[in-house]
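Trying the structure run again after the queue cleared.
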Amino acid sequence: MGAQRHVAVLIGSLRKGSYTRMIANELIAIAPGTLAFEIVEIGNLPLYNQDFDDQKAPPTEWVAFRDRIRPMDAVMFVTPEYNRSVPGVLKNAIDVGSRPYGHSVWDKKPGVVISVSPGAIGGFGANHHLRQMLVFLNVPAMQQPEAYIGNAAKLLDSNGKLTSDTTRQFLRTIMDAFAAWVERNVPTPSHA
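Done. Tokens:
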């Protein structure tokens, strides 16, 4: 067994009773032990404004966020869909981490995108918009299995635990595949 890989988890919903957060917690609970997860909160990040980076005076929240993501081996994005795309809070976190230009904290980190929705199509639009961003950010995103979790409200009990064994097995399949993806794609340290 190799070294344990550290995975930043970004959750695109700030709502207290978020189905997305509940699914993220279930994913973490059933993941292989080769992955160690840290949920990195994004709700306190001021909106990205390049002037702060240009003036070498980024908000302390940006600096702390970048410092938490930078040493991570991989990243897991779990997002709802707002207006057929990703929520603004998640887009802002991605922007904050990608700047200043040439210093992106996302570069080469293997990633996975899981979209969650109370609707039937499982956040398809958000999933694919996020994947489009990851191409530019040089994040090798796991392609298969795709993870669109629809009808989320019907899959969880009042404590946020999965009620469907079929869904639990599907999530386990996703996490097993992600663990293998991380091992194949985590950058090897350069020795100068």
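The chain has a mean pLDDT of 94. Worth checking whether this holds up in the mutant runs.
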